[in-house]
Design goal:
The protein is α+β, with helices and mostly antiparallel strands and 541 residues long. The chain has 20 helices and 18 strands. It is globular, with a radius of gyration of 25 Å.
């Protein structure tokens, strides 16, 4: 005779014998597919290598920073892996680390992971061991064991741009660290909120066979852990159920690369995708004619710009570049191609700079007669000026380029589009390299995050040999180290004058905007950023 006790024992034994997938079926959380134009430019997921608009989309979902951004607000700073922080002096910020945080490999997040993430080996590929400053209570000096991984040559310049004077990480105890700069820096807190400040597992980095192996599957602390990454194809992430911020609401997040806008939209409407990103403004009304769908989004802290290479023969004369800035009818681009859903900003700056914002600054006026005068005075003879761009990386990219070429033609400039397949080709050095399509983001609320980071001495434009200016370089260094707010604001105003009027390094076209289409029954809010937030506080269905 089978007793109740024996029945219970048999039931337990039967459940343990079930295949794993059968037990997993009890997880009723959804599998969500997001269609994107591009997943990553570098074909890696390392925050210091994948410094791109598209890479920003999901980075915070698997690798977090000491200081987070409020993606459901106005991108203000808020606690992340650090519960609090305080200024020790002009060069030092102390962080109290969040306790009990589990990384994707099961390790506990500690001060040593912070030290390893900012070590010379990880950022610059240096192989020498480094002492991380202070001591743990019982163990003497902590020496980083982070191994060199033959970092790609692109990473050290990015690290220098994001952290130009970082000196060391001091480990005070298991849950307290100090970031120490070699020079005064009022922006250290902002720098710690950037994507490049992501904290990764020291052990996982050390144990990876190569940098590429690590970079294709970084081990962090975010709400989702990477299961599989196929470059130019898909990224699959599963819920990290030990996440300190609460159980993630989605079982599996799938990003699939769908370059064509029509395919993303059709896949959304057919139910193949739950989200479709990078939607052009002219598609929004068509999508929302179906009551089951909506489009969210708007302006973000990123400006679309045209960058100049003043080594190109026709552009050596600043008057030709000045003419190009005055030939552009920016309002027409905003009103027609963007249907008024973005704006012409006050140059390369954003209002969230607060007291550093130069309120009376404007982009160069649309003034074709002035542009023609400048062209004539320069002695320009009609030599072709090459305009390099990708086909559809930015929303409305080819249409904007065609409009610009026509506007420049109206003032006597012979600009010819040269379509490229990837960013490597866009930046490639050649005598024909004239102007190129680009964008510039403010990754935190200070001008050093934009005008210095991209156009200063360590910025991409100067690193690629397109443009340099002695006064701009001197001011960049002063802006990074000065603690006098009024003086810094005066310096920034002068930098705008140099870079946008006197010796143009770039010209701002318009503020960028990003739009995401989704099923209306999914309660989710788009951030004022390229980033997408799928944490528990921003989900419902």
């Amino acid at each position: 005779m089978i007793t109740r006790r024996r029945t219970f024992q048999l039931a337990i034994a039967s459940s343990l014998a079930l295949p794993r997938f059968a037990i997993g079926q009890s997880d009723t959380r959804p599998v969500i597919t997001v269609a994107v134009q591009k997943i990553a430019n570098s074909n890696t997921l390392d925050a210091l290598r994948e410094q791109s608009n598209v890479g920003t989309r999901m980075m915070a979902m698997y690798v977090e920073r000491l200081i987070d951004l409020n993606y459901q607000g106005k991108l203000e700073l808020r606690p992340g892996l650090a519960t609090s922080w305080r200024r020790i002096d002009d060069r030092t910020v102390e962080f109290a680390l969040r306790r009990g945080v589990k990384m994707h490999n099961g390790d506990e997040f500690t001060a040593e992971d912070v030290a390893a993430s900012f070590s010379p080996q990880r950022m610059f590929g240096e192989t020498r061991p480094t002492v991380q400053g202070k001591t743990l209570p019982l163990s003497g000096q902590i020496v980083s064991t982070t191994a060199s991984k033959d970092l790609p040559r692109e990473i050290p310049p990015v690290a220098r741009r994001l952290f130009p004077a970082i000196d060391r990480v001091e480990i005070i105890d298991r849950y307290t660290v100090r970031i120490v700069n070699a020079t005064p820096d009022v922006t250290l807190e902002g720098r710690m909120s950037t994507a490049g400040a992501g904290i990764v597992s020291q052990r996982a980095f050390n144990e990876s066979a190569s940098w590429l192996e690590y970079a294709r599957k970084p081990v962090g602390t975010g709400p989702y852990r990477i299961r599989e990454f196929k470059p130019d194809n898909m990224l699959i992430m599963d819920a990290h159920d030990d996440y300190w911020g609460g159980r993630p609401p989605i079982r599996t997040l799938r990003l699939v690369e769908v370059p064509e806008v029509s395919s993303r939209v059709n896949g959304l409407l057919s139910g193949e995708f739950q989200f479709a990103c990078d939607i052009p403004p002219d598609q929004i009304r068509d999508i929302e004619r179906n009551a089951a769908f909506e489009v969210q989004g708007g302006t973000i802290p990123n400006h679309r710009i045209t960058a100049f290479d003043k080594n190109h023969a026709p552009l050596r004369d600043a008057r030709v570049r000045q003419a190009m800035t005055h030939a552009i009818d920016r309002k027409a681009i905003v009103d027609t191609l963007w249907e008024g859903r973005t704006r012409v900003p006050a140059g390369l700056q954003w209002e969230f700079y607060d007291d550093m914002f130069i309120a009376d600054w404007t982009v160069p006026a649309f003034d074709p007669p002035r542009a023609r005068e400048l062209v004539k005075a320069s002695g320009y003879k009609g030599d072709p000026i090459t305009y390099r761009l990708l086909n559809n990386y930015y929303t409305n990219q080819p249409f904007t380029a065609q409009a610009l070429v026509e506007m420049w033609s109206q003032v006597g400039l012979n600009v010819q589009i040269n379509m490229k397949e990837n960013w490597t080709q866009v930046f490639e050095r050649s005598p024909e390299r004239g102007i190129r399509d680009w964008s510039n983001s403010a990754v935190f609320n200070d001008p050093v995050s934009s005008i210095v980071s991209q156009h200063g001495p360590n910025g991409e434009q100067q690193q690629y040999g397109e443009w340099t200016n002695e006064e701009m370089n001197r001011l960049s260094l002063e802006l990074e180290t000065s603690t006098d707010r009024a003086k810094r604001r005066t310096m920034f105003a002068r930098m705008l004058q140099i870079c946008e009027r006197e010796d143009p390094a770039y010209t701002v076209l318009h503020q960028n905007a990003t739009f995401t289409a989704k099923r209306k029954d999914i309660r989710w809010k788009a951030a004022p950023s390229f980033a997408m937030d799928f944490r528990a506080g921003n989900w419902g269905a």
